[in-house]
Amino acid sequence: MSGPSEYVPQARALVARICVYEPVDLQAVAAARELASLEPERAAFVLDALVDLAREGGPREVIAIDAVGRAILGAPPEQLSHLHRSRILDAAHDAGLIGVSALFIAPDPVLSLNSDTRLRGDPQIAHMSLGHKKMLARKANPDLLARLAAEGDPSVVHNILLNPRLTESLVVRICARRPIRAEVLRHVYGSRKWSAREKVREAIVQNPYCEPELALKILPTLSQAALKEIAPNQTLHASLRAMATRLLDGDDDASTEN
After folding, report:
1. What is the pLDDT of residue 4?
2. CA separation for the pair 171, 254 (Å, rounded)
3. Residues near 88 by beta carbon (within 8 Å), at least 6 away in sequence
4. Which one of 27, 80, 159, 217 is least enclosed by Cβ atoms within 10 Å?
């Protein structure tokens, strides 16, 4: 294959084909379709060019790399097979494309909660049933929302995200809370409205309870200022720090660790 410069026009064409759609979910479907249509080695180099374009901060490029991350993370096999994903990862490894490899790996989180671990409940709402809390989450005022969110139940948080009274500052507080179940952060990432906010994405990535598999896909969408905070943060997984450094430096000197 030719040198990396060959892939910049293809990356720009990929951006155009993804951004013709507006809803996030349709952008992810388009990204999955595009990746599935590319031979693995070519896909790896096109994604490498796309990561560089997104690093430069173009809004359409950021949208495209976000769609790619969502496709890799959640596209069903009929849209993007697991075999094709693994072959793109292998091609990226072989070519030393650390930024692309990071989009496909799934290291264990630095911190995690067991599924049966109970977080401290708020005494003012502890008597309520889970069903009652989920119902209230959709219509409660900000004070009660904060209390419901503090309990960290993923199903309640899912309903909180649908509440029209919810504010960005509360979503950031939810994402910054520690300890937290990784599923809660996945719910926020899955919200079209709130995952579009950079402060929310920053809070997700900077939480050591966030699965690196998710955080690594968000990193290329963040600002240089956010990356400068993440790169030296020893509470985060080494793969995140390495990828943040790579995005800041614009080269592949950093190594991604599992």
Report:
1. 63
2. 32
3. 35, 40, 43, 44, 47, 100, 104
4. 159
Contact 65, 54 (CB under 8 A): yes
Q: What pLDDT score does 223 carry? A: 93
| Every domain of the chain and the residues it spans | 4-104, 110-210
- pTM, to two decimals: 0.89
d(CA 149, CA 169): 12
The pLDDT of residue 64:
97
- The answer to whether 205 and 49 have CB atoms below 8 angstroms apart is no
Residues of the chain with pLDDT under 70: 1-4, 115-121, 250-258
* Tokens read off for 225: 């200022």
Number of other residues whose CB lies within 10 A of the CB of residue 179: 14
Tokens at 20, concatenated:
């013709």
pLDDT at residue 257, rounded to an integer: 45
How many other β-carbons are positioned within 10 Å of the β-carbon of residue 223?
Answer: 13
